[in-house]
Design goal:
There is one protein chain. By secondary structure, the chain is an alpha/beta fold. About 35% of the residues lie in helices and about 20% in strands.
Length: about 350
């Protein structure tokens, strides 16, 4: 089986963690229990088979530099667990559109020069899968890139809450081109939303009536800084809220649930704090209250999931599957086309991986 040629849109903290991880785990041995990886070999593809061949950004600190250098350039501030060697891949000047909001424009200066020919670059590098790491709220920029991606004939992994894979229009567009899409809005391995989802389902399965809940998140990375612009936050709140409420079979009044980023604390850097509170009624209508605090490094917490999403996207291309890929969307993303419980979504992913899987000898 061949390598998986990957292009990245947006060289922020998430991209940094992803690329660091590709090098950090490149000698991981099958059969070992290794922190951070759900699959060492996925359908015949080892993590080391992921090959970064192109990258796009608009920041003058990153454009024109080798990806290995750009990953550590400010305002990136995530945990450095691996020093990536020079890769021989230069960061190309991307399209701005609405990718640079009110707050990010205070700390990011656009690189001079025109937007690169994205289609040409993707075709010349023989890119298989494109990963979208644009800032939250980049609606027009994401859709512009999608047109280039489809023209170049690549699969797409949408890690941000711009709704693509869950929308019938975009599903049909990718299907018409014979291309797979996995989205939308990446779940972390053990992050705020998946923890909240699992607890919500636990309440429902154990007969506890959930009446009120909130999830408050804050951190010090550019994602939280960008989301101080509340107009850019709408899709993120929808994504996180529906991800949680989908685990119930009854409706919560909108006033009884609040899920979303709440503030930006610069000195936290890429650390994220989450506070969850859940109030319900149990046997005899007796009150039950739960409070949870979670602290994570935000970007590494999602990188392992993206590793699997990339490999599932390539598997779908190998098999000629097209449009939104149901199981991986449901397990890896907050806003998939179809919501399942996480147990059921995991089963669907394992079935997808094992279906006609080729295992290397």
């Amino acid at each position: 089986m061949s390598k998986i040629n990957v292009a990245i849109i947006g060289l922020g903290n998430c991209a940094s963690s992803l690329v660091q991880g590709i090098y950090y785990y490149n000698k991981a041995r099958e059969g070992d229990l290794i922190p951070g990886l759900m699959h060492i070999n996925l359908g015949g593809y080892h993590i080391s088979d992921i090959n970064i061949v192109a990258a796009f950004d608009i920041d003058k600190n990153k454009v024109g530099k080798d990806v290995a250098e750009a990953l550590y350039a400010p305002p990136n501030n995530t945990f450095v667990f691996c020093q990536v060697p020079q890769m021989g891949v230069k960061v190309s000047r991307g399209m701005t559109h609405d990718g640079l909001g009110k707050y990010l424009s205070k700390i990011i200066t656009k690189a001079p020069g025109p937007t690169a020919n994205v289609v040409k670059i993707l075709q010349e590098t023989k890119t298989d899968v494109v990963v979208n790491y644009l800032p939250v709220g980049s609606e027009m920029a994401t859709k512009w890139y999608i047109e280039q991606i489809m023209a170049a004939g690549c699969g797409f992994v949408n890690c941000i809450p711009v709704f693509i894979a869950r929308e019938s229009y975009w599903q049909a567009r990718f299907a018409e081109r014979g291309l797979p899409v996995i989205g939308d809005d990446i779940k972390s391995q053990v992050g705020a939303t998946i923890t909240h989802r699992v607890l919500t389902r636990l309440f429902r399965d154990r007969g506890v009536k959930l009446e009120h809940t909130y999830q408050l998140n804050f951190g010090g990375n550019t994602d939280f800084y960008n989301m101080l612009e509340r107009e850019r936050l709408e899709s993120k709140k929808i994504s996180k809220t529906t991800s949680v409420t989908s685990q119930l079979d009854y409706a919560l009044d909108p006033d009884d649930i609040h899920v979303g980023p709440s503030d930006y604390v610069p000195w936290l850097k890429d650390r994220k704090f989450c506070h969850i509170k859940m109030e319900g009624r149990t046997f005899g209508d007796v009150p039950l209250n739960l409070e949870l605090k979670l602290e994570v490094w935000d970007s590494p917490n999602s990188a392992g999931v993206v590793i699997d999403a990339i490999r599932c996207c390539k598997l779908a291309m190998d098999r000629g599957e097209k449009g939104a890929i149901t199981g991986p969307c449901a397990y890896f993303m907050k806003s998939p086309p179809v919501q399942y419980t996480d147990d059921e979504a995991r089963r669907l992913v394992e079935e997808f991986i094992s279906k006609d899987a080729k295992v290397r000898e």
